[in-house]
Amino acid sequence: MIPPENFRAAIEQQSDSLIDFTSKIVATPSLSGEEGDVAALVVTEMKRLDYDEVWTDEVGNIVGKISGGNGPSVMLNGHMDVVDPGPKEGWLFPAFSGEVVGDELWGRGSVDMKGPVAAMIHGGSLFKKLGARPPGDILMTVAVMEEIGGLGSQFLATHTTADIAIVGEPSRNELRLGHRGRIELQVRFFGRSAHASAPQLGINPHYAAAEFLQKLEGLSLQSDPVLGEATIAPTLYLTDQQSANVIPSEATVYLDWRNVPSESRQHAVALIESLIGDLSGAGHESAEVKVTEQPRLTYTGVSRDFASVFPPFATSESSTIAKAAFDKIEACTGKPASPDVWQFATDGGHLALAGMQCVGFGPGDDRLAHTNQERISITELKTAAATYAPLALALAKAVEN
Q1: Any idea where the domains of the chain sit in the sequence?
Q2: Cα 349 to Cα 178: distance, rounded to the nearest angstrom
Q3: Whole-model pTM?
Q4: Any idea which fold 4-179+312-400 has?
Q5: Residues 144/81, Cβ–Cβ less than 8 Å
Q6: List of E strands, 240-383
Q7: 357-360 and 164-167: which strand pairing?
Q8: Does domain 182-296 fall into CATH 3.40.50.10320?
Q9: PANTHER family, from UniProt (predicted)?
């Protein structure tokens, strides 16, 4: 068994290249569907770090393999796409600068999640550097399109198998054991358009939408002992009109449903349909509910119809894998592992749904993600990089035993 200090020393030896690589990929824009430039950098870095195999799959995910024995395989999972940085004003440094100031590296994606990806890639390379042959294969996966539903990891889950997944989303180097899912629903109310000066000639769908939203507020949702209560938030409200003097013929309410494992996509649709059925009937001729689906085009040119559904996942704190993760994270980081759940959805839901046992661990303060204050601690980045290999070893051995 290689002691944690050996992994820390190895990362310290390559800390300059870790920081340079992190800065380089943060400085390279990669909105969802436009990840090609970052993908090329990732491939080059994995090959430089002597991964046994590196390939790009059909949809553009990058996979690097460290060959192991016939024991349990471990997937390290991250994503290379980022959200739009928004207005330039408000950023202390340019959003795509990768600027290093003191112990912090700034820029869009530094936390979510190019910093964690760099830490995983460099951490995975330590298997070769220190001669720590894992029980099974180590798969370093960097997925596309996580920010818009997880198309990349959904593809990975059906084309790349592993027994265990470590999701590297930012967790402040603490243990994460799951998250609620996300289902995006559209509830559309159909009326009859008319001139606003003669409302009696139309059927105004706004009234049905208003009644629906009042009923929605009192809807009873399910809860989970690990993830807590489900929530539904109305977000967008659209009509088929742009003129303020026309009664629309349609009004659509978008719902963001953060679901727990007992609430499936089918359950969500059925529950909203029952709520629509309880409306008084005034203000609409008919109504429908559907999960948002739209075509997605990857940077490799592959088009997929993709539903806006992130599955939830929950790993029990008393499980073998959680206990092993807790002990190893504490030993490697020197601080409490503080098991908790993410408030946001991750690709871990797709991987867990495919049968992988999942835990979460990554550097970066998740509260800074998607903000113009996004930056990551370099100390935290190096600590995480030194933790991934021993954590993967501990999880594989725990499952093997």
Answers
A1: 4-179+312-400, 182-296
A2: 8
A3: 0.93
A4: Aminopeptidase (3.40.630)
A5: yes
A6: 246-247, 250-258, 286-291, 293-297, 303-307, 309-310, 313-314, 340-342, 357-360, 375-377
A7: parallel
A8: no
A9: [LYSW]-LYSINE_[LYSW]-ORNITHINE HYDROLASE, ACETYLORNITHINE DEACETYLASE
